[in-house]
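Design job #97: recover the sequence.
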C-alpha cells in the first residue's frame, strides 16, 4: 500500500515493513499522484513483480529504486491527483450521509416495532 504525507511533521517513525521517500522539488513526479498510481492496478502490478517472500511479501527499497515506468507530465499528474482527491472526498461525504441515513432508519424502525410510534392506515373503499 502506498500513501503520501503532505505536511511536514517532525519525528516521523516507520516500522520495519515501511520505507519512505522525500521527493525533491526538481523531481518530475507529484507525491499524491504517485500514491494513487501505486494503489492502482497498474502500479500494484509493477510492485508485485518486485515482491519477495513466501508467506509475507516485502519490497526491497533498493529494488524499488531501480523501478522504471512512464508517467505523465507533472502538470497532468497534479490534475489527475486533484480529480481523484476530489472523488475521494465526495465518496467520504456520501458514506457519511449513508451512515446517518442508516442510523435514522434504525431509529425509526425501533420506534415502529416497539409501538412508540403508531401508523394509521386509511381504509380503501
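Job complete. Output follows.
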Amino acid at each position: 500500500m502506498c500513501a503520501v504525507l503532505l505536511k511536514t511533521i517532525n519525528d516521523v517513525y516507520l516500522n520495519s515493513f515501511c520505507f519512505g521517500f522525500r521527493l525533491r522539488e526538481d523531481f518530475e513526479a507529484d507525491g499524491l499522484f504517485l500514491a494513487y498510481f501505486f494503489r492502482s492496478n497498474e502500479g500494484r502490478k509493477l510492485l508485485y513483480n518486485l515482491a519477495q517472500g513466501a508467506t509475507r511479501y516485502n519490497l526491497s527499497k533498493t529494488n524499488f529504486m531501480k523501478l522504471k515506468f512512464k508517467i505523465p507530465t507533472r502538470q497532468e499528474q497534479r490534475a489527475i491527483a486533484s480529480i481523484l482527491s476530489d472523488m475521494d472526498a465526495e465518496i467520504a461525504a456520501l458514506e457519511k450521509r449513508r451512515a446517518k441515513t442508516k442510523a435514522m432508519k434504525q431509529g425509526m424502525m425501533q420506534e415502529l416495532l416497539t409501538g412508540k410510534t403508531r401508523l394509521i392506515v386509511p381504509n380503501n373503499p
